[in-house]
Design goal:
The complex is a heterodimer of chains A (351) and B (216). Chain A contains ten helices and 15 strands. Helix content of chain A is 37%, strand content 23%. The relative contact order of chain A is 0.14. Chain B is α+β, with helices and mostly antiparallel strands and 216 residues long. The chains are: A alpha/beta (351), B alpha+beta (216).
Chain lengths: 351, 216
């Protein structure tokens, strides 16, 4: 705008970066990394990237350029990151590498750290202020794999988030579902995140966490189990799932196998909730019936909620928690990131 | 031929006033007849709280020696000969001790403290120092395999696994996010109204305000 058009010399109002709502939520999953933050217009902006990469020899550069796939050059290799990694892996007849295995980063995976750094940097973007609060998800320790190291996992992501210019706050993954989805119940409920690598569970009353744990079973466990049982491959089972499957009326042996392992996973999760809750029953009273909120990518299979309710109804009589309702998170892939965002925004409530 | 138990002292020092007024150092052991556990409540209590541990059960009669020097000798001999003897009884007693200890350290101490006046009036003082017992119990509980201990924190109760009790420092590398390594990564961006986030943020704010008011 020229001075002629603006005779009073008043600069047009532009929102400074620091005026924008502050706080970011970050969901670090085995399959996806999702960030959520408030936009300038009041809505919520989320960014999602596939948590996968593929390393290729340098002589693949020409082919990648021709196909328009973006890559990163590192030492003696080319790395493709995110969704293109999965697509390119198929072309090369390879399996894309996953930085996280069963929900956690494995100690000693040096390559994976660099990739995770890149992924998170891209998903988070620049902080709006120096050391902007970033709540990121960490799973609870898996009860069925005590050798898995949650402490190292948390430490690595704290470092990455910090190096991206944010102040990191680690927060339980399943509790994020409680924060995002149970405001009308006073932040009371059971949150279950059916992820790819693991299933995270938390129970809370009025934001107070009563119980939290994870089981090292999720979408990958379903794929692996179904593949082994019918002599197929995990990738094949995964593609059957992604093509669409109705768990309540599976067609063919492959779909039946998938439905069988889904049922087994749900039963296992519910049994563990019942068992763990009985251990703390005397110390943690539930004043009223609470909802079960289900989230996560593995819960996106066709007919999952109906299937879940059927399994639950068989167990309801002996289930030690009085359940008011079973419902799906409003956005199952974003619920954890939203829950993290809600917590992050509380850091700026006094401003 | 009556069965005998070998009890090992796991605390630094333990005085058994009722049972011959003997003092045991850590690692020392004594042979006691099976029925002595019932006859001497202090033995039972010492077993319950973990000040004494059951080493083994013998069917052969042994001469009890309460002197410290010989007790030390015997400990060595017992450790060298770990022969299996009636595992069922031993297992039962071990399970009893383990279960009692695991249930809750504070509850045990509280129970001892609450039973103190009664003990004082009905029996002679046991001679077991409570602070020592507390220390011993802490040690024993921490050495137990932490399968799923329910921990009551300030605001939450969560299950933890033994892996988290390892205090070995973990090295986390620096410079993970490198400025040199740059890439344009395809991210799926979405924008939503965010009404659920708004509602949750507001509800959480109100809840925290109410809590603050209550506290003040």
């Amino acid at each position: 705008m020229s001075d002629a058009e603006n005779p009073e010399g008043v600069k047009p109002k532009s929102r400074k970066k620091t005026d924008l709502p502050k706080g970011v939520g970050l969901d670090i999953g085995t399959m996806n990394i999702v960030s959520a933050r408030r936009g300038a217009g009041g809505g919520v902006e989320s960014k999602r990237v596939r948590d996968a990469f593929l390393d290729l020899p340098p002589d693949s550069k020409k082919m990648l350029k021709l196909s328009g796939v973006s890559y990163v050059e590192r030492a003696d290799e080319l790395i493709i990151i995110g969704d293109p990694a999965l697509e390119t892996a198929n072309i090369f007849g390879r399996e894309a590498r996953r930085p996280l295995q069963a929900g956690l980063i494995a100690a000693g995976e040096g390559d994976a750290l660099d990739v995770l750094g890149l992924l998170i940097k891209n998903v988070l973007g620049e902080p709006r202020i120096k050391n902007e609060a970033c709540y990121f998800s960490v799973p609870a320790a898996p009860i069925d794999q005590p050798d898995k190291d949650v402490i190292y996992h948390q430490g690595v992501f704290e470092r990455i988030v910090k190096e991206c210019g944010y102040e990191p706050y680690a927060s339980n993954e399943a509790m994020a579902i409680i924060y995002a989805e149970t405001a009308s119940e006073g932040f009371s409920g059971v949150g279950i995140s059916f992820g790819s690598g693991m299933t995270n569970i938390a129970l809370a009353v009025n934001t107070i966490e009563g119980l939290s744990f994870s089981v090292a079973r999720g979408g990958d466990w379903i794929d692996g189990g179904a593949a082994r049982s019918i002599g197929s491959t995990q990738a094949r089972i995964c593609s059957i799932k992604e093509q669409g499957i109705d768990l309540n009326s599976p067609v063919g042996r492959e779909q039946e196998a998938v439905a069988f392992y889904y049922k087994n996973l749900i039963e296992y999760a519910l049994d563990q909730i019942a068992l763990r809750f009985k251990q703390i029953e005397g110390q943690f009273a539930l004043p009223r019936p609470i909802p079960i909120v289900v989230s996560g990518g593995t819960s996106l299979a066709g007919g999952f909620m109906e299937f879940f309710e059927k399994v639950f109804e068989k167990k309801r009589k002996k289930f030690p928690i009085d359940v008011s309702e079973i419902r799906h998170a409003s956005e199952p892939l974003n619920a954890v990131a939203y829950g993290m965002l809600v917590q992050a925004m509380q850091e700026y409530e006094d401003e | 031929m009556s069965k005998k138990l070998i009890l090992v002292c796991v605390t630094d020092r333990l005085r058994l006033r009722e049972y011959g007024d003997i003092t045991l150092e850590k690692g020392a052991s004594i042979d006691v007849p099976m029925n002595a556990i019932e006859r001497y409540p202090e033995l039972q209590k010492a077993l319950e709280v973990g000040a004494l541990a059951l080493q083994e059960i013998r069917t052969q009669p042994r001469v009890r020696d309460t002197s410290r020097r010989t007790v030390r000798k015997r400990t060595k001999r017992v450790e060298a000969s770990k022969r299996p003897t009636q595992p069922t009884m031993e297992d039962r007693l071990k399970d009893l001790i383990e279960a009692t200890l695991r249930s809750n350290l504070d509850n045990i101490v509280q129970a001892i403290e609450s039973s103190k006046p009664q003990t004082m009036t009905t029996t002679e003082p046991s001679g077991i120092d409570e602070d020592t017992l507390r220390a011993v119990m802490s040690e024993v509980v921490s050495s137990l395999p932490a399968r799923e201990i329910v921990v009551q924190g300030t605001a939450s109760t969560s299950t933890v696994d033994s892996v988290q009790l390892d205090d070995t420092p973990m090295f986390i590398p620096t410079g993970i996010v490198s400025d040199e390594l740059k890439a344009e990564i395809d991210t799926a961006s979405e924008s939503s109204k965010g009404s659920s986030v708004d509602a949750a943020t507001e509800a959480l704010r109100q809840l925290r305000k109410a809590k603050k008011k209550k506290e003040s």
